Amino acid sequence: MKSEIVDLRSALQFLASIPGQLISTKEPVDPVAELAGVYKLVGAGTPVAPPTRVGPAMLFESVKGFDMPVVTGLLASRERTALLLGSRIDRLPFDLLEALRHPVPAATVTGAPCQEVVLRAPLDLQTLLPAPTNTLSDAGPYFSMGLLRAEDPETGESDVTIHRMCVQGPDRLSVYFVPGRHIDQFRIKAEASGRALPVSISIGLDPAIYLAACFEPPTTPLGFDELTIAGGLRQRPVELTECVTVKAKAIARAEIVIEGEIIPGERVREDARTNSGFCMPEFPGYLGKAQSLLPVIRVTGVTHRRNPILQTIVGPGEEHVNLTGIPTEASILGMVDNSMPGRLRNVYCHSAGGGKYLAILQFRKLVESDEGRQRQAALTAFAAFPELKHVILVDEDVNIYDSNDVLWAMTTRFQGDRSTVFLPGVRCHPLDPSQTPEFSPSIPSPGVSCKTIFDCTVPFRLKEQFRRAQFVDVDLKRFLPEMR
Length: 484
Ligand code: MN
Description:
The relative contact order is 0.12. The chain is α+β, with helices and mostly antiparallel strands. The chain has 2 domains: 2-319, Electron Transport, Fmn-binding Protein, Chain A (Pnp Oxidase, Chain A), CATH 2.30.110; 340-460, UbiD C-terminal domain-like (3-Layer(aba) Sandwich). It has 12 helices and 23 strands. Helix 4 (92-101) packs across helix 9 and helix 9 (318-339) crosses helix 10. Strands 5, 6, 7, 8, 9, 10, 11, 14 and 17 form a 9-stranded antiparallel sheet that branches. A 5-stranded mixed sheet has the order 19-20-21-23-22, sandwiched between helices. A 4-stranded mixed sheet has the order 1-2-3-18. A hairpin with an 8-residue loop joins strand 19 and strand 20 (358-363). Residues 159, 161, 182, 220, 224, 226 line the site of manganese (II) ion (MN).
């Protein structure tokens, strides 16, 4: 099945063939706040505020003021993500790790579908593309599933990353880079020599490309082309095409490509047009503050397929959790397995942490001397992913995807004073609002946290006393033939 998915529309076709994975509405929807409000109820998922849930992807066929449909939530369930990758829920990080270890380089093609229609500047993004505004407090409309691609002006090395881009005018987008991100390093180099940095923004893609792009250092250091991981996942090269108006390359089978350049010296306040003070909802579940001085992309052209579909993310939520969490799980599995093979059975970056702050590690102690190595695995996870805040350790008989089961372990295999390890004063991630000196006297400045290990594993020597009640295994199909 997975080899049939080559782009967004083949992914949608695939999902339409599976009950409950894709729904659509013809009812006209306002891209300002209403679209996100609908999807909050349908399938956005935690950490979007309740009521929300994990649900199907959704196609909005009629968007007020535009002649273009919008789709969201493609990766907003782990089950669907596994289906789209021809994988299984518990195998996803292993498949990503496999692709990371067997990358397939991208290939450049001509006659790209994303250039069936070519529009050159002057053009007006505000009327051309239905970029949604997710809440009424947002700085403006955002392209939130825009895959930015650029090349190092000195070495030619490339990078792809999803960055949030806010519409700032007919041909202007602001782009936010967390300090240190790879394309920002290219931009700084270009700016230092007074040059613009050509970029492409590909929107509406094969889900494998979006997932691969969310790998971060140290797994994918500067110069590592994340598209090679997408190639590894699909076992065929991602196809690139030369842009029409700038010297850059874009994803050939994208629905839409915005072409442009980051202008040296130009800056904009993210909420310059609304003075809202906020940008958009961020992955921990809170509204982010608008940034004061963001680089600006001048748009030189837009190309798209015939009847293009704009893809967006309603986040925070399950889609963001999967995008950041599954590559993180792969990174943790890879690093721990290098140091202690066969012990770490699986990792789940839980929705509650937006895919970044909370990881559940399933650890198997094989011999007496494995006692304590589960905590070493937690420390390795912190090293593999510096933004991680909480690690919950469980045994091999606990289902890491079932929060009830994890809390059961935290209740019956946990003593607060013995099973908790505090690592105060460690740099974490600035978006967690609890990381302030006002919240805790152990925090010297915002962004520093007390990382914590919750060790819910049974001490090795006591294992026999913690055997779960055993029920007999039966073939359920005999009793309920229709149940999967
Ligand atoms: Mn990178």
